[in-house]
Structure formats: C-alpha cells, structure tokens
Amino acid sequence: MRREAPQKLSDYGPLFFPAMMLIVFFVVPFATMIAVSFFQRQQGGFYVPAFQFANYERFLSLFFANVLGFSLMLAVTVAICCVVLAVPFTYLLTRMKRKVQIAWLVALLSVLSLSEVIIGFAWSTLFSRTAGITNLLVMAGIMSEAKALLPSFGAVLTGMVYQAFPYTVLVLYPALVRLDPTLTEAARTLGASPIKAFFTVVVPALRNTITATLIMVFIFALGSYLLPQLLGRPQHWTLSVLITDQAIYQSNMPFAAAMAVFLVLVTLGLVALTVLAGRKGETA
Amino acid sequence: MTGALSKVYFFLIGLFLALPMIVVAGVSVNAKQTLAFPPKGFSLSWYGEIFLNPEWRNALFASLTLAILSAALAVAIALPLAWFLWRRIAPWANIFQLLGIAPFTLPPVITALGLLTFWATTGFYGQPWTAVVSHAIFFVTLPLVTLSLGFTAIDRSLVEAAATMGADDRTIFRTVVLPLILPYIVSGYAFAFVLSLNEYIVAYMTVGFTMETLPIKIFNALRYGYTPTMASVTILFVATAAIIFSLVARFGDLPKLLGAMSSDDT
Known about the structure:
The complex is a heterodimer. Chain A is mostly helical. Helices cover 71% and strands 1% of the residues of chain A.
C-alpha cells in the first residue's frame, strides 16, 4: 500500500491517543519543570510562582563548578573506558556464530536492564571487606588480610563502566554488524596481521560511529545517580545526585529544576554534536 | 585478531560481567544473616524470605503490578503512533516519534523530576497509578523502536492487496498488519516490562513515599545495613531478565531487533 497523506479528519484517529499522552505527560511536565526552575522557594519545601534567575545564579559558585567539572570528567572517563573495551569486543562478537551472538546479547541485555540499586549493591558487596574480592586474594595467598575497597573513585568508576558497557556494545552492534567483511579480508590478503588489520582498516572505517558512541555513552553516564552515592564519597557526587538530593531531601524544587534544565541543555548540545558527526559520516 | 587472544578477551569480559553476580549469588545462600563470601553454610531460606516476609512480598507484588500495567500502557501508546507513521505521509507527525524517544535518551533524573513537579502541581502526587503513567511514558521508547522496526519489515503489497479487495483501514489492521506485527509487540512489551521492574529513580520520585517497589525496597534496606534477602532478590531479577530475553530470542529475531539484518538476509 502506498503511503498517503491523511485526507479526512478520521485519518488522524490513530494519532490521537499517543499524541495526547505524550503531550500531557511528557511535554507539560517538562514545561512545568522549566517554569518551576524560575520560581521562588519558600520555607518548608513549598514554592511560589515568580520569575527570577536566583536558582541559576547559585551555579556560579566554586562548589558547583567543582561538581560540574567532576561530573563531566567522570562521564568522559567512563565513556572512554567503555568504548576502548567495547569496540574490539563488539567487532569480534559480530564475527561469531549467530547462536553464540544471541547468548552474549541475552547476557548483555540482562546486565543492562539491572537497576542501578542492584548494580550498586552487587559491587559494594564485591568491594566489601567481609564478602569481597579481597577474600579470594587472601585465600590465594596474594594478600595478608581482607580489606574494603570502597568508598573510592575506583569503585565508582568500575560500577559505572559495568553499567555502561552493555549499553556501549548495543550502540556499536548495528554499525559493526553491517561493516563490510571484505574490508578486513582485503587487508589480510595484502599481508596485514589480524590486529594490524583491525587498527588500520576497521577502526578508521568506524571513526564516526565511534565518535557518536562516545557521546551517547557520555550522556548515559551523566545520568548515573545512585552509583556515586553507593560506591563513592560525597566528593564523588555528580550533578544527577545533587538534583535528586535537592529535590527529595532538601525539598528545594526550584533549584533542583534549574539544575535539571541545565543538564538538559548540556545533553541537547551533545546530541546536536552526535547528529552533526553522523551527518558528516554520511557525506564522507 | 588471533583466536586464542580473542578467547582470553571474551573470558575476561565475561568474568567482569559475571563476577558481581557470582559473589551476590554466593552471599544469597549464606546460612545465617551475614554478608559473607565464600558463604558460610548453605540455605535457600533467603529466597523463601522474598515470598514469606510481608514487606518483601508486597514490594514484589507492587513491582510486578507496575511493570505489567505500565508496559501495557507503553505499547498502547506506541502501537497506534508507529502504525500512523508507517501508514501516512505526515512529516510533522514525526515530532511525536521524537517525543517518544526523548524521555529515554535524556538522563533519567530529568524525566523523573519533570513528572515529580507535574504530579505535585496537579495534586496527584503519591497516587499509585501515577507511577504506571510515569513508567509508561519513560519506557514508551522501547516498544516504539521495536514496532517502527517491525512495520518497516511488512511488505506493503500485502496491505495493498487487502485494500484492493475492499478492506477498510480497520479490517486491514486487524487481519493483515496485527498478525505480522505481533512478535514486535511482544518484544517491545518484554523490554518495557523488564526495565520497569528494575527502574528506581522515576518510581522513587513519583510514589517513593507511599509505595515500595522492589528497587526502592532494596535501596531503603541498604541504609539500615545488609541482609542476604537483597542478594536473593538480585539473583531473582537477573534470572527473570535472562529468561525473558531468552524467550524473546527464542521466538523472535534478537540480533535483528538490536539493529542487525535478519537471519534471512545474511
């Protein structure tokens, strides 16, 4: 059937329910949040309509500059670690038998769907003194006594890489599956070793995909709100943690909303960059 | 890369992914209420605890209800939208596709905070049904993506044939399109269901003070110290997710759903 433009009003029928739901429960809440970010906070957790920039002005402090700087640094580190680990992994995965691929995909999806609460709990157990990995090292005679490895920056980073790795693989998967296998075959025929073929042929061919993936994983990592709390110290808290903290525990909705709007702007700016990177890839 | 090297690499990645689950599984079979690994003694009582302890049972029941209803609502929003976008030429309607994908792409805390301010402003804050709507909006992306993919796989000439024989849109949808799209509806539902079961921040910000879902219950329990029940719940969750995704892979084309070409093409 050819696609046709809607002619009668009733042709728009199927659109009515989805459009209404998305407008009422996504666009309106989003607008509400933006409005609240300009409101004035009252004592006791309430707020009154106003139009002031005070909530945004609070960013201009050393404390928030530090938090923002740390959030960005952490997300960049997570993105780089994940992409470095995931590109060769996904490449090899797409060259495997279909059945093996499916088994790995099921495992990756299962880890990806895990709640941050569960990932945080699992890693805090693994890094704990009583039930942690150090007990195995003690049994193996490498360490003299078990110790806790958290809270620490390393613990936060490990937990977040664990959370973002399956996501990275699944973002890379479609592009790598479609990569023309004759590319590497040609390099191999011409005498390149498999590793050399991977770095000189596969990686350059995927340059734009890799850039786009880095940005996607960066945004994903920016959204992490529980792992820094469960595995780190207060100086490891990110913007997402502060937003939750202000909204729930400090009951300062206007300030939380202002930070959220700011986070959206950062994210949207990066999505725009991803799209630009993708465009360049198509024309190249 | 050489075979042995890639085997080692896959083993290490597999170990990294599995290690926390191995330790948690070990903790979950401790005989006493200690968080020890390797476990001291062996007991499955912490699995029984999920169903026997009323607090954990209620949380499990709340999570299941929320996931069943919100995934259904997400599909109900995504299906007509994907159908319309496939059936009609209406470029401006693509804005709704974008709106459907946005909640999942933005950092979750933003969607959560938006919904929190909205429910607080409208006065419904804390009602259990608001969590269902919130999750449906948050996860509508998943059925929307799988269904859009499913529609592009439908041969338009089939629908054309039905139209030539005089079937109206409604009949075409019910007799031709629905049977073809059904696997994608099921997998979209499955993705939304599993993620809703695990979701914390949106549920916490909308109904966190009136209702405990399992992830909220685990987080609240973490603050008062550890119990092996958390470990057994975690294993239950991983097992559930693995079983559901295996079923999707068994009855559908998982690599294709995740963006690869279908097995017929390769």
